[in-house]
């Protein structure tokens, strides 16, 4: 692989992991905020539907940010030559 292409791919992977980390942190804070509001509500009150939607979106975002974007390149086999690849055949499938 050409050295410039490798550096470009490595830069994109690192930026992707940084963005995924920021997304994970934001989603955790959203879920924490909804949980606090859930704990403060009275027993006969419901949370607004927008909070339910926001919490479920944050849960989905955690899964989407963590597995393909944060762990993605680390799960690839080392033999692929892909930047930051650290996995094996078992982690790839």
Task: Note the topology.
Blueprint: H1 3-40, H2 49-70, H3 72-75, H4 89-92
Describe this structure in words.
This protein is mainly α and 93 residues long. The two termini are 24 Å apart. The protein has helices at residues 3-40, 49-70, 72-75, 89-92.
Short description:
The chain has 93 residues and is mainly alpha-helical. The chain has helices at 3-40, 49-70, 72-75, 89-92.
What key phrases describe this protein's structure?
mainly alpha; about 90 residues; elongated; about 0% strand; about 75% helix; 4 helices
Radius of gyration, in angstroms, nearest whole number: 19 Å
Task: Give the class from helix and strand content and strand pairing.
Answer: mainly alpha
Low-confidence parts = none
Query: DSSP helix count?
Result: 4
Number of strands: 0
Oligomerization? single chain
**Pattern of helices and strands:** HHHH
Helix content: over 70%
Distance between the termini: 24 Å
Give the overall shape, derived from the CA principal axes. elongated
Average pLDDT rating: 90
Please indicate the percent range of residues in DSSP E strands (runs of 2 or more): under 5%
Task: Give the biggest beta sheet.
Answer: none
């Amino acid at each position: 692989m050409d050295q410039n292409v490798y550096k470009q791919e490595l830069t994109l992977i690192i930026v992707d992991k940084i963005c995924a980390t920021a997304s994970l942190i934001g989603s955790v804070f959203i879920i924490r905020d909804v949980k606090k509001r859930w704990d403060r509500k009275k027993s006969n009150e419901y949370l607004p539907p927008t909070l339910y939607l926001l919490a479920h979106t944050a849960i989905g975002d955690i899964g989407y940010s963590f597995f393909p974007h944060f762990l993605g390149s680390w799960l690839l086999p080392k033999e692929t030559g892909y930047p930051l690849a650290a996995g094996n055949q078992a982690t790839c499938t």
